[in-house]
Amino acid sequence: MGLFFYYFTKFADHFILIYSATLFGTYFILSAFSALDIMKYMRKNSFIDYRDILTAPSAPSISIIAPAYNESATIVENVRSLLNIHYVNFEVIIVNDGSKDNTLQLMIDAYELEPVEYAVEDKMESKPIRAVYKSRIPSINKLTVVDKVNGGKADALNAGINVSKYDIFAAIDVDCILEYESLLKMVKPFMEETEDEKVIAVGGVVRIANSCEVKDGKIIQVNLPKQIIPRIQVLEYIRAFLLGRMAWSRLNGLILISGAFGMFDKKIAIASGGYNHRTVGEDMELVIRMRKYMEEKKKAYRVVYLPDPLCWTEAPSSLKILSKQRNRWTRGTAETLWMHKKLIFNPKYKFLGMISMPFWFLFEWLAPIVESTAFLYLVMMAFLGILNVELFITLFVLIYTFALLYSTFAILFEELSFHQYQKKRDIFRLLGTALIEPLIIHPLTVYYAIRGNLDLMTGVRNWGEMKRKGFKTKK
């Protein structure tokens, strides 16, 4: 037994160090790729006048679909933001997914809506539609509001697809505020696709709008969140969007487009089966299924990511809401990986099967499990009085140093590229946040991920409602 325990501890020690080093090395490589590609993107696009797309005859029409459930705090401002988007031919479809508050009534009053006869093409399965509303105001003819029985976000998006008129749709969280030229930038990759390589989906950067000032549906003043929890999420979003997804896009291995804002080829989405009702990770699951469909049809395709800050959203400002969000993210990831487990390490699906899916399995879903297990292992070793102090110190220094350097590089690169936070004190506050995040919030997010896996195992299916406080509006 003593010999077994000895070899077990040696194996555990080496596994922890090797896994950590591999994880950090992988993220470092992805960050380097992302940085190089973003600089290339910025040089290329600095000469582009996106207004030319407005008059281009090849510019496609777009359906914007935004599910809404109990969004009374921000719904009027959010709809105004969508209607003010700088584009020519588009429609805005708000899907009221059986809200229990006065979300629908606020829209009816603000935009003078009335029920109309509307032919709905049921290509995607969804809960029954109660009514379709249009505005009596001619200048708001782009707005369509769908009132339906509650079925969840995926169900609402499918209903929106059924109502939509155009071949490209943008799925957006209704609490988001889009940048003025967001559609112009997102639609550009679709316009550049060739007969040899089809663009099936495009995603962009999502930023945190907490403490920012909003007027007439637009961000007029970017401020760093005053509260520590949203501020930490600013760091997380910069790292995830600036230092990760650009590399995956360049490698054509991107399998996640944020549900907050993504643009899709409707025909491919419908042919792939639309949004899945059986997972809370419907955004990631749809992208994987669309990629799988294209691979099985042996058609060349791309999933494109743009580094421009195109969408602003309200982040959780309390640990209670944050825990629900991260629990849902974990369950969505686990459900999606399980649904598509046959793709993992499957050479038939090329880069998708051999690189993208294994990465998400090993370093996104498995990481919090390995981290928490390693922590319990070290606690057990300390309790038994045989803790490898050298390993413990090495591991702590390695993890903390990497987290600090990674966040610092993300902040630096944000300043050198898009420079959203222009006050010097905000940069210092972000750097200060980077110092404390690994010690305070990160352990909690690991705990939330473990709870998410446990909830999934015990059959928890709820979405985890996020209550909005609303944006800071300026009149």
What is the topological layout?
Blueprint (H helix, E strand, L loop, with lengths): L1 H44 L5 H5 L6 E7 L6 H9 L6 E8 L5 H9 L1 E4 L12 E7 L7 E6 L4 H11 L4 E5 L4 E2 L3 H11 L5 E11 L4 E3 L2 E4 L6 H15 L2 H6 L10 E5 H6 L10 H15 L4 E13 L5 H21 L10 H35 L4 H28 L7 H34 L14 E2 L2
Parallel strand pairs: 1-2, 1-6, 2-5, 8-12, 9-13
Antiparallel strand pairs: 3-4, 4-5, 6-11, 7-12, 8-11, 9-10
Helix pairs in contact: 1-13, 7-13, 7-14, 11-12, 11-14, 12-14, 13-14
Structural features, described:
This protein is an alpha/beta fold. It folds into two domains: 2-35 and 350-472, no CATH class; 49-318, Spore Coat Polysaccharide Biosynthesis Protein SpsA, Chain A, CATH 3.90.550.10. It is built from 14 helices and 13 strands. The protein has helices at 2-45, 51-55, 75-83, 103-111, 153-163, 182-192, 228-242, 245-250, 266-271, 282-296, 319-339, 350-384, 389-416, 424-457, and strands at 62-68, 90-97, 113-116, 129-135, 143-148, 168-172, 177-178, 198-208, 213-215, 218-221, 261-265, 301-313, 472-473. It is globular, with a radius of gyration of 23 Å.
Give me some keywords for this one:
Spore Coat Polysaccharide Biosynthesis Protein SpsA, Chain A; 475 residues; 2 domains; 14 helices; 3-stranded mixed β-sheet; globular
Number of helices: 14
Q: How can the largest sheet be summarized?
A: 10 strands, mixed
Name the poorly predicted regions: none
CATH topology of the largest domain: Spore Coat Polysaccharide Biosynthesis Protein SpsA, Chain A
Nearest-integer average pLDDT: 89
What is the subunit arrangement here?
single chain
Q: What order do the strands of the largest sheet run in, or round the barrel if closed?
A: 3-4-5-2-1-6-11-8-12-7
